[in-house]
Known about the structure:
The chain is 41% helix and 16% strand. By secondary structure, the protein is an alpha/beta fold. It has a domain of 224 residues: NAD(P)-binding Rossmann-like Domain (Rossmann fold). The strands form four sheets. Strands 3-2-1-4-5-6-11 form a seven-stranded parallel sheet, sandwiched between helices. The chain has a two-stranded parallel ribbon with strand order 7-10. The chain has a two-stranded parallel sheet with strand order 8-13. Helix 1 crosses helix 8, helix 3 packs parallel to helix 5 and helix 7 crosses helix 11. The longest helix has 21 residues. Belongs to the NAD(P)-dependent epimerase/dehydratase family.
Amino acid sequence: MKILVTGGAGFIGSHTVVELDKAGFEPVIIDNLYNSNRGVLEGIKKITGKDFPFYEIDCNDTQKVRELFEKEKFDGIIHFAAYKAVGESVEKPLNYYENNLISLMVLLRAAQEFKVPNFVFSSSCTVYGQPDEIPVTENTPRKPANSPYGNTKAIGEDIIRDYVHAKSGVKAISLRYFNPIGAHESALIGELPNGVPSNLVPFITQTAAGLRKSLTVFGSDYDTSDGTCIRDFIHVVDLAKAHVKALELLDAQTETDFYDVFNVGTGEGYTVLELINTFEEVNGVKLNYTIGPRREGDVEKIYAQSDKVNNVMKWYAEKTMANALRDAWNWQLKITTQQ
């Protein structure tokens, strides 16, 4: 099966390309390189020994997307390409709504026109807002999102659900990610943000490497064991494997209007300070960090209940937070020595 991976040069996308290849799929990568770079493609090639087709295309460009679908015959699409910084989305909401929603609709129209039956959407646990109870299940009510980024994921899910139920010929799964961290154990690919990182772990590794003076922990007065936010941190390789499982589940469906959602998390919550302490312990590095005020858009605490993804997709988180933080640090050391 030939699978289009949008945003395939990005953090999660690149690891998913590797896992797709390992599972016998043929990935084709498109990416506009807005928050990634071509060097990632070389890392993928070193891991897999293969040179996958790559197209520098923006998913909002209807004409170029159609031309690609005319050229390549796809059996499925995994849609990662989106802006994803919570804080930036609060400052620039229109950019997020325009980019994240139009690209989704362009791809769904192409999937219908060119009869691509399987669609996996990169969603987020942000659709739950601040839940009343944790852990969250797939039946936990979605709340108004805490950020425009989170709202684009909720609206994206609704668009897909309605499109599938309109007998579009597309079957779809939305994967609600929790907090992906880590890197490939080879240290050949990992998280590579352009500019100031919006995610916690690359900010930690850059601070540990001396590239940034200090790390700011946003808020210490939350209702948690140490006052910092609680998150469900999942190794990016485990998350990548969930996309393979999702494609396999879609391919097995005989209903043409199949749509479902799955939480993809470890089922365990850790505070930000617990993550920092674990990073220091497993890597033998002391971090310079300060406590700052709360950040607008942040949820206090959330982690997954993983029963559904375990039982239905037969997917399980295999790697620990310590594994992920060791891999992330090895990746940082590698790219720091290359700079």
